[in-house]
What does this fold into?
Amino acid sequence: MSPLIDGLQYANWSEKVFRQMRDGGVDAVHVTITYHETFRETVLNIERWNRWFERFPELIFQGRTAADVALARETRRTAIFFGSQNPSCMEDDIGLIEVLHSLGLRFMQLTYNNQSLLASGCYEDEDTGLTRMGREVVAEMNRVGLVVDMSHSGERSTLQAIEHSTRPIAITHANPHAWHPARRNKSETVLRALGKSGGMLGFSVYPHHLKGGSACSLDDFCEMIARTADLIGIERVGIGTDLCQDQPDSIVEWMRVGRWTKLKDYGEGSASAPGFPAMPEWFADNRDFGRIAKGLRATGMSRADVSAVMGGNWLRFFETSFETSFGAKSGEKPKLNRAAE
It folds into this structure.
């Protein structure tokens, strides 16, 4: 039986959430540990996670390799894999990429909505693609085994990341733009390129990226997954809920604004409701993954394919993505075979 893996969460972490993970049988989760924080601030966030690992060792532990997913299943715990939704944690120092990887970071977005030192975000009027530094950083991420995540990036930047990266990239939490035209949802061009390159797409249940918002039905969501799997390959899709459970509305402001503006930036679909939107009734927390699995079965998807979407595909991606390639230097392409080749 395949594991249950969520490609992205940013909850207000607590014993309650950790116990719900266990009640839901969640074997591994990629968690956001930092948005706009500097390197030092990110280390403080890791310290906070270390305290949780100390307090709740029977529920969670830090995941570093794909083998930790098997350990989680054997010990009935949840493996926590660290990720960043912005490159702020590496500041302007490419050497910090290896340091962050050594601390357990396994995913890093090149942008969060805006232009960064590395690439353009999906909210910019002009997407100039990967910058000179961006190309160097992608090569270094490839070398150490840090996944390039383009969930909040613009189209040209995403396509260039797919082309430039010697490892398959991930879009950990987004949906097809043709299904719902949110700025962060991805075009068919991007999705086809992602699938062809061996990358992974995690489907999001965050309401601003669902057709119908909070009223989106489970049937519609699962049919969208099935159609996308037909487009890019069943082996290229998984779940990346973007669950922000129990977070106060003030966190939305930090996510969207950080330190780059003095103004409010309520973001996509939320001008009249600046806080977190209500979740769809069929997914409130980690105990509801079974509903998605049943919904996928109802589309006619086989049990094997449902298992792949619910975690098997992420596990295979982890197995190749977290390996190191320390024989190559920054700026050089490590000798790794792309999954599609």
